[in-house]
Amino acid sequence: MTVETPPPIDAALTRRLVDTQFPQWAGLPLRRLDPAGSDHVIHRLGEELSVRLPRHSGAIEQAEKEAEWLPRLAPHLPLPVPVPVAVGAPGCGYPWPWAVSRWLDGEPATVEALSDSHEAARALAGFLTALHGFDAEPAEDLTRRPLAARDRATRSAIAETGDTFGTTAMTELWAAALAHRDPPRVWCHGDFHTGNLLTTNGRLSAVIDFGELGVGDPACDLIIAFTLMSAETRATFRAALGVDDATWTRGRGWALATGLNAYTTYAAVNPHVAAQTTRQITQALAG
């Protein structure tokens, strides 16, 4: 029988899983990190490791995917990424695979800290250039859904939020983004936003959370230009990345679609998400 809901993912459960399956780490202290991501509960294990347990069944393939691909990607990328060191099996009542990875120090990137940093814009462009240029065919189907797969949901969200952001402007941008078909297929992070960037001493230090890693439209990773950057640093980012008009327009479309999805889902109950997604949508409309 498939278990769709795990037991409470607390320190006691995580401790049992680690101690049972990886006794070499049984003596290391364990501390839960809050807030954690929407897909995983994360505990720091000692000083050098982290433990990530999926919260829901939609994230259960991430551990094995990251364990296979991140060690291969890491040497080609100009910023550190969290390389997995072990994949745990279901156990102790917990139903899914889970991961132990190398810990990366840093604080989440913020608009206040980095929006005006041309250095950060160039560093992000360099990271995406390297990632999108990674030359390896996946051994399994890691194809990401195209932008057009979001059409119905995005048009519904446009209708719902038209009074807030402008129905005409959103409809025109969405139509322009969908007009550019058949993008190249490259390796993509897939969830490239401020929450998945780390900084140390005010500078970018790492990129994390590759759960959406796959092969698809490179424009999906341009969302960072609209979640993090100002108009000026966005221009630096675009020039350093060297993308054409079609890719940039699709990037604006990805930012609009994902921003609207989060806004309509969470904005009414989460002021932080409301502020973040409002910025994302308005910056995507501005270009």
Characteristic terms for this protein:
43% helix; single chain; globular; Aminoglycoside 3'-phosphotransferase, Chain: A, domain 2; Phosphorylase Kinase, domain 1; 287 residues; 5-stranded antiparallel sheet
Write up what this structure looks like.
With 287 residues, this protein is α+β, with helices and mostly antiparallel strands. It folds into 2 domains: 11-103, Phosphorylase Kinase, domain 1 (2-Layer Sandwich), CATH 3.30.200.20; 108-286, Alpha-Beta Complex (Aminoglycoside 3'-phosphotransferase, Chain: A, domain 2), CATH 3.90.1200. The protein has 10 helices and 10 strands. A 5-stranded antiparallel beta sheet has the order 1-2-3-5-4, sandwiched between helices. Strands 6-8-9 form a 3-stranded antiparallel beta sheet, covered by helices on one side. It has a two-stranded antiparallel sheet with strand order 7-10. Strand 2 (40-45) and strand 3 (49-54) form a beta hairpin. The protein is globular, with a radius of gyration of 19 Å. The N and C termini lie far apart (49 Å). The mean pLDDT is 93.
